[in-house]
Amino acid sequence: MKLTSRLTLLLATAAFGVLSLPHLAGATPSSHVWTPSTDIQSPDTFHLTYDTYIPSQSDASGSKPDTVTDLGLEAGVWPLKDKLGIEFGFDNITGYGALDDYPLYFNAKLGTPENTLFTGSPALAFGGYNFGTKHNKTNQNIYYVESAKTFDIQGFELGRLSFGWFWGNQHLLLDEDQNSSANGAIIAWERTVPEISDRLWVCVDYQGSQSGMGALAPGASWKITDKTSLLFGYVIPNNTDLAQSFTVQLDVDFSYH
Fold first, then answer.
1. Quick check: 26 pLDDT over 60?
2. Backbone φ/ψ region at 212: left (φ over 0), alpha (ψ -120 to 50), beta
3. In terms of pTM, does the model score above 0.90?
4. Cβ-count burial of 101 within 10 angstroms (0-12 exposed, 13-18 middle, 19+ buried)?
5. Are the C-beta atoms of residues 81 and 110 closer than 8 Å to each other?
6. What is the rounded CA–CA span in Å between residue 246 and residue 100?
7. Given 46, 87, 122, 231, which is the most exposed site by the fewest CB atoms within 10 A?
8. Domains of the chain in sequence order
9. Is 155 left (phi over 0), alpha (psi -120 to 50) or beta?
10. 16, burial (CB in 10 Å: exposed 0-12, middle 13-18, buried 19+)
11. H or E element: which one contains 153?
């Protein structure tokens, strides 16, 4: 769901040659509201995403960060049909002053769906994102491993739980004291809500660490058509020095065959 995006928040210091920023939208793999998911983009399709992150408050400096926009494109391939999938993509991210000179970020993911390894096995994924093009400015180089499993009780679906871990560039992913906080947990719960509509999806996800990567993000998505969805969410950083943000994410799939 949300073949999304996520906002990547950063803190860094000019003393180490890094721009000081409140947050940075990430080059987004298939994701939840904030965190990457185990989902892989469908084969023979492109996925176009347009995400905005709108601060709802000022940060610790007393100023409100600019709105960030992320225009991204993803593609999927399945070298082993229904068994193993690969996706890769890039994003053009703007809203960060001098960093707008290096707006291009890349991502990739390898994964398997649920029930692939054995009956009842979880989905598994290994991937990376925020591969920027400017050394020690945009190259957060975040890697992650993740599993996901759908649970139900007597035919009633409780939703899907995801657990994982990420790690990234320790020189860029810093806490409020400029100490490295470059790894943490990935946790998410998501569910389609057929009691209301099969088009409605809800999610709460969380990413650990006291760097800008750490946040809690509830959200909901409405499937406008079979290939178009619109997500509304709210991003609450673990680091209270950073501003909370609304996010609106439009996702469109289209075949290239």
1. no
2. alpha
3. no
4. exposed
5. no
6. 21
7. 46
8. 7-255 (2.40.160.40)
9. left
10. exposed
11. strand 139-153
